[in-house]
């Protein structure tokens, strides 16, 4: 399965590794190898880190905490203290090291560093003015959260190529049926 990075925030992209949360929940981080691949696909690390079962469990806890905090922010509900603790603990380690070389950018680190980068991105989003721009995709059954950076703040779908295209095609078929 392909990972998508359309949320406008790395933390929300991690939260987006679960699809259809309210119906047929699809977990894209089914095993340690999936999480290792996500760290590379997210451009956090150049080489997949070692991921243990405990590391996968930590990533899943962080993912759910980010989703809970972003959903609370979106609905103006109070943050769950447990979610704040998970996010803040995950943000503590140093993020991946970045070096510019004659061959380009090199990103190194372990799983904790990659998760720290995702946690810090979520904390920056949820602790700043863009919190008000967090939206949930309107396509059914998608539950991806994203930052609405559109000019008029009217973005409805997480991704126009996927959810938006399907919704517009369905509306077109309904009008012409």
TrEMBL record:
Q: Which domain of life is it from?
A: Bacteria
Instruction: Using the record's annotation, list all stretches that form the Zinc finger CGNR domain.
Output: 134-176
Instruction: Tell me one Pfam family matched here.
Output: zf-CGNR
Which SUPFAM superfamilies did the record assign?
Answer: Jann2411-like (SSF160904)
* InterPro entries in alphabetical order: ABATE (IPR010852), ABATE_dom_sf (IPR023286), Znf_CGNR (IPR021005)
Q: What PANTHER family does this protein's entry cite? A: BLL6575 PROTEIN (PTHR35525)
Q: What is this protein called?
A: ABATE domain-containing protein
Q: From what organism does this protein derive?
A: Actinomadura parmotrematis
